[in-house]
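pls read this stuff:
=====
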Amino acid sequence: MKASKGGTVASAPARSGNVQIAEMEDAPMSTERIDDAVYVMYVIKALEASKLPSMDVGGGVDPFAVFKLGEREVYRTGIKLKDHNPQWNETFRCLVYNNEKNYNLTIEVWDWDKVSTNDFIGSCVLEVAQLQDSQKSKKDVWLPINNNKNKHRGDIHLTVTVETFESVERQFWQGITDHFDTDNDHEIHQDEFNALLEAIGSPLSQEEMETLFNAIDKNKSGSICFDELYNRVKGCASNVDADPITRNLLPADPNFIWVVMSHINPEVETVGETVLQDSRWRKEVRMPSQKREVGTSRIMVHDRATGQLVEERIPNYIKVAMRIMYTGKTGGLASGKMHALLQNLTDKQGKKYNDPKSIKDIAPFIKFHHINEEECLDSTDTYRTFNEFFFRKLKTSARKIDGSSDDKVVVSPADCRLSVFTSLERAHELWIKGKNFSIENILQDKELADYFDGGSIAVCRLAPQDYHRFHVPVDGTCTKRKAVNGTYMTVNPIAVNQTIVDVYGENKREVCTFTTKEFGKVGYVCVGATMVGSIRITCEVGKKVKKGAEFGYFAFGGSTILLLFKKGDVEWDNDLLVNSEKCLETLVKKGAEFGYFAFGGSTILLLFKKGDVEWDNDLLVNSEKCLETLVKKGAEF
């Protein structure tokens, strides 16, 4: 288990061996390919710690270390009993995906307790700049361990090396070559080469094997050296069909070589043994999860602008609402008493923040959430109540509207923490866990629910610190508005991820639709939450609006906007899909592009005058083979 905010982790058994593999939580895979490529691999050796404090009554300490990339636990060391200066000397490998390349590495040190929960000793951070610097050479560092009060609690010693794909790919093919070099002469002879092809299930005939062997044997020595084989296959991981060797050996996953090399223990197994004798490597590689453990009150989000993982600060009133919802003292989530309490909390807070006396709360709120006052249209001293500040307007220059002249671009309707899913079913499986969740329940309109059946959904969650006016994501005309009464449960992920309640189907909400040129109908559901006194729509039904135009605002509290698109109409940006598959929200600003009109099962023909264009060679090669090539929007070809 991961460490909780309360300062305990479950007992961690010691592990044998000095070379360990990084452990990853697996997120359920979609049937479609979500392309989150590996960026680099960290090879980390946890060497030792020194001068750790006494944690037991008898003056001892039983330390172990937990390594996290962002929120993802990647490794934990064995436990050293009664040792203030433990020597671990354990090596592990950690894959870093593209969306994690700006994440820091956090090392937590814990005191193991056999009977009760473990005790937190302290932690330290190896910043991404230091990690990237170790790409040039091995980095050997001592890091100070501090507790939550910044008190020094010892030091930890580790080395870090960053492996690029070029070095990892070379190691992979060296391992395959060594496996079939049965006489250990560092050469592959014809019989050894035939054994390789037979082992990977190649359909080539004996004559074809000999022809291939001779083609690889560039110096005509009668044997293949490693460099000759490597020059043949390098770079084929991204196009395995390009060569008869890779076609049968590698699955169609560009991360395959990365994952194999991150799990190899060179002291007990070879690449050849792992790949050829273990069928798990022929299956699709699964992505690591940033999934939160049930019960923790910590919310981490991926900041799209910086690439960093940041902690969302949770106000006390949300913690109060969570206690009401989950402690059971009010009769549980389904009880009328719980709903009445949340209604009372919301009414009370709404009255408080509409009172002129509430202006005294503005400055502490700005300080607590680090709000940029320079973006506000009006100066702070002009607001007459806290609520006026809460649904403040921003300067036009504060937010850019992407694709303002392109009807096919979908932009974020708000400053929000965003999750996107290609289908409502996938959203239910990964994120909106309420057992009674259904689109008809949310919309309270069967005809409209049938229209969006099987469609895509974007969940745009506004935390209290966010700018709380919401805007139009695409050009269109507002054609419908319907208020649906409900309760005021918190919409933060801890609540939405619970199976026992359907937050979006039970909370107060406004169901709206837009008619658009490119997307047909677009659903726009404004969901209130704990302390949201009201949902104000400022756009009239029948009014034609441009993307980025204001649509309304929420009074105080957290809230959510659900955007619904017909099946096949929208293609979400890949970085958002990757994070959403990991149950990780992405922090985006109002007006930022995050989706595009999908052409579905259609074809576009591009015609050029003779001699005016030169196609990329890889596309020409594939087309000559009557083989289509999958490319992304905006890629040169």
The chain has a mean pLDDT of 81. The radius of gyration is 28 Å. The chain has 19 helices and 24 strands.
